[in-house]
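Protein: methylated-DNA--[protein]-cysteine S-methyltransferase
Species: Quadrisphaera setariae
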Amino acid sequence: MALIPARPLRHARTDSPLGPLVVVVDDDGALAGLYYADGHTPAPRPTALGGCADPDDPQVRAVTSAVLAYLRGESDVLEVPLTSAAVPGATDLQRAVWAQIAAIPRGQTRTYGEVAAAIGKPTAVRAVGQAVGRNPHSLVVPCHRVVGSGGKITGYAGGVEVKRRLLELEGVTLGTADATGTPVSDAPEAPAPGAPPSAP
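Structure follows.
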């Protein structure tokens, strides 16, 4: 997951099949943040948004077009350039977690424990859950593909229902195994250890 160096930011709101989104880009058109406009949890800091932009700004439009094509099922791939501008203080662990999440293929899921093991810190499940919750690039860095222990759907920045819809869009049938054999269920469950309710 290559990140472009930080530059000044601006943001715009756009409608989507999942509800309104806030898209944050830099002067080069790289995505700095993608947030759910109605109740993103945790809410992004104002400094992570920059100034207001016209939704028809060509650089904003390039990102929103890619996101909307993915959410409408018109494309199986969601790739846009990313920038670290919104997370200048990100830790090495957070960056390692985000890189690991970015590598989860469409149609597959990983548990928080599996992500922790993959970055070489199998006992850091709680820290991994917190890092997942701080991912600024929702959808593009697919934190919705991280599930609780036993494959249960736990908290998500846009809400559990949005997470369920995203997984179904990507071919994960709830109540069955995903492409890796991990069972995925929408049965109610408390978040797995280290997976806070706000984790996207």
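Remarks: Residues 186-200 have pLDDT under 50 and may be disordered.
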